[in-house]
Design brief:
The complex is a heterodimer of chains A (256) and B (284). Chain A has a 6-stranded mixed β-sheet, sandwiched between helices. Chain A has a 4-stranded antiparallel β-sheet with strand order 2-1-4-5, covered by helices on one side. Chain A has 10 helices and 10 strands. Chain A is an alpha/beta fold. In chain A, a hairpin with a 2-residue loop joins strand 1 and strand 2. Chain B has 2 domains: 41 residues; 234 residues, Orthogonal Bundle (MetI-like fold). Helix content of chain B is 76%, strand content 1%. Chain B has 11 helices and 2 strands; from the N terminus they run H-H-E-E-H-H-H-H-H-H-H-H-H. The relative contact order of chain B is 0.15. The chains are: A alpha/beta (256), B mainly alpha (284). Chains A and B meet through helix 2, helix 3 and helix 6 of A and helix 7 and helix 8 of B. The complex binds adenosine-5'-triphosphate (ATP) and magnesium ion (MG). The site of magnesium ion has 2 residues of chain A, from helix 1. Adenosine-5'-triphosphate binds next to helix 1 of chain A.
């Protein structure tokens, strides 16, 4: 079952995460392939979000969290003491469940990351903003009102704005946590389309509740249950020939 | 039976609420009405444009330009002086201090400081000045007022920053921003309208306060020119004018009070329009 991946970008090794005394991730080890879409699936509360956010060390923003084990990114353990966490987060971007624009204009939202990393020139920023808004499929809708408040956009547009904002930092990895669950079907479809296009340049890890979405998008699948990794492998293998009874039960809609 | 009881209860509660509301609005109208009715007749152009004439600062002629300017200078300087330290304290509390006893203790101390009567700030400022060899002066008044405004400013700003959604900070952290970058570029921007309100609340407390400037700033019939000379202020102008036995001077006290009220009103109206402008990009 342990189908070795050539050239994994991220290697999770013996990862545990505890909120206080409650263990949310138990000894998870899995490799994540580069430039593919990996879907993390499993019932509510099984630790999908926790696992996802541990990859860019966002779990540690919660009070009382403990993380042990390793996550190798490009061969380097992101939890090693000498690692600069901002550098990790720069290279591993996050798209959250609900869009949260920053309190500034559409333009400034996309330019936020580049400015953080020292881009000051107007032309350079203009070029980045246009490129990433196009990549997120939002450019045509907002090109005439780039300096309007980001909150004036619809929820679906805001989510694409957040995608553009994340891409503007030029990460290698994009963590997506149920990114379509707050959206209407059309907006959801648009985001999905973007993700499929983006995987030629990015490694995407996607948490989803919607099995059909995982079937549509995923190249690789990780199934979690009660904080444990139950099964992982190429999408067709997991969906066509699940090995573990729990995976079968979950795919059959019998496990919540 | 139950039903009647409930109805009765609701009517009594409603009656009490309406009565309280009437009390609040009524006292506001009564105060403003008195100030207007007594102040307007005594108010004239000379009041606003001249310094006192005809017998020291309680003169029947001339005006209170010295007190108007004095109050504005005092409060502007004191607010500016306490703003940056207050902002630093608040940012520290929110970004770096861990959730622990120290944080609670800091908040508690600030609440206590807030409710300390302003005469205590005056007395404290006075002691401080004696130690430094200063006499009642603009500088002394600024320091006492800054101390008075400090806890108001911090606690209000603190509440404002508590309302910034956690997710907003997280968005910034997730892009690799540091705590400080996040504070400056995101948190302060989101909180800007609230911070402005905090500043104006502090201004309001500062400009209306008489007790803290009584010993520290003193009083004079001259315009403020240097930091080391006494300075006049509107609350003390009201206090002294009202305290004279001369009826004409007493009437002028209401005019001074009217001027003070109008300044405070203008401050809060100005704040409103500024707040609206700053709120353009705010996330709700
Ligand atoms: N901030 C937190 N504090 C304490 N416990 C938490 C916190 N976040 C998550 N947990 C716990 O950790 C476990 C895993 O939560 P997690 O959010 O990772 O699950 P999930 O698979 O993403 O669930 P869902 O599908 O509902 O989003 C749950 O038992 C949850 O109660
Ligand atoms: Mg989740």
């Amino acid at each position: 079952m342990d189908s070795a991946i050539n050239d994994p970008l991220i290697q999770i090794q013996g990862l545990n995460v505890a909120y206080g005394s409650q263990l949310a991730i138990r000894d998870v080890s899995v490799d994540i392939p580069a430039q593919q879409i990996t879907a993390i699936i499993g019932p509510s509360g099984c630790g999908k979000t926790t696992l996802l956010r541990s990859i860019s060390r966002l779990t540690e923003l919660v009070d009382g969290v403990r993380v042990w084990g390793k996550i190798l990114f490009d061969g380097q353990d992101v939890y090693a003491p000498d690692v600069d966490v901002t550098e990790v987060r720069k290279r591993i971007g996050l798209l959250a469940q609900r869009p949260f624009p920053l309190p500034m204009s559409i333009y400034d939202n996309v330019a936020y990351g580049p400015r953080l990393y020292g881009v000051r020139q107007r032309e350079a920023l203009n070029a980045i903003v246009e490129k990433e808004l196009r990549a997120a499929g939002l450019w045509d809708e907002v090109k005439d009102r780039l300096h309007a408040p980001a909150t004036a956009l619809s929820i679906g547009q805001q989510q694409r704005l957040c995608l553009a904002r994340g891409l503007a930092v030029e990460p290698d990895v994009l963590l997506c946590d149920e990114v379509t669950s707050a959206l209407d079907p059309i907006s959801a479809q648009r985001i999905e389309g973007r993700l499929v296009e983006l995987k030629t340049n990015y490694t995407i890890i996607l948490v989803t509740h919607v099995l059909r979405q995982a079937r549509r998008l995923a190249d690789y699948v990780i199934f979690m249950y009660l904080g444990e990794l139950i099964e992982h492998g190429p999408a067709e293998q997991i969906f066509q020939h699940p090995q573990h009874p729990k995976t079968r039960a979950y795919l059959a809609g019998e496990l919540y | 039976m139950m039903k009647i009881n409930k109805h009765l209860e609701e009517r009594i509660m409603k009656g009490l609420m309406v009565a309280s509301l009437a009390l609040v609005v009524g006292s506001l109208v009564a105060i403003l009405g008195t100030v207007l009715a007594k102040g307007l007749p005594a108010l004239n152009w000379a009041m606003l444009t001249q310094t006192p004439k005809g017998g020291y600062y309680l003169g029947k002629e001339g005006g209170i330009l010295n007190a108007i300017t004095g109050s504005l200078v005092l409060v502007a300087a004191a607010t500016a002086l306490s703003f940056f330290p207050a902002l630093a304290v608040v940012l520290y509390l929110h970004l770096f201090a861990k959730h622990n006893r120290l944080l609670d203790l800091t908040r508690l101390s600030l609440d206590v400081l807030w409710s300390v009567p302003s005469i205590v700030y005056g007395a404290f400022g006075f002691t401080l000045m004696l130690m430094l060899g200063l006499r009642a002066s603009l500088l002394g008044g600024i320091i006492a007022l800054a101390l008075l405004e400090f806890p108001v400013m911090i606690r209000t700003m603190d509440e404002v920053l508590l309302m910034v959604p956690h997710e907003l900070k997280e968005v910034s952290y997730a892009m690799g921003a540091t705590r400080l970058e996040t504070a400056v570029r995101v948190v302060l921007r989101q909180a800007a309208p609230g911070l402005l309100t905090a500043v104006l609340l502090a201004c309001g407390r500062g400009i209306g306060d008489a007790a803290s400037v009584l010993f520290t700033a003193g009083y004079t019939d001259r315009m403020p020119t240097t930091l080391l000379r006494p300075v006049a202020s509107l609350p003390l102008a009201v206090f002294f004018q009202l305290g004279t036995p001369v009826p004409q001077v007493q009437e002028r006290a209401y005019a001074s009070a009217l001027v003070l009220t109008v300044i405070v009103l203008a401050l809060s109206l100005g704040a409103r329009s500024l707040t609206r402008r700053l709120s353009r990009h705010i996330i709700h």
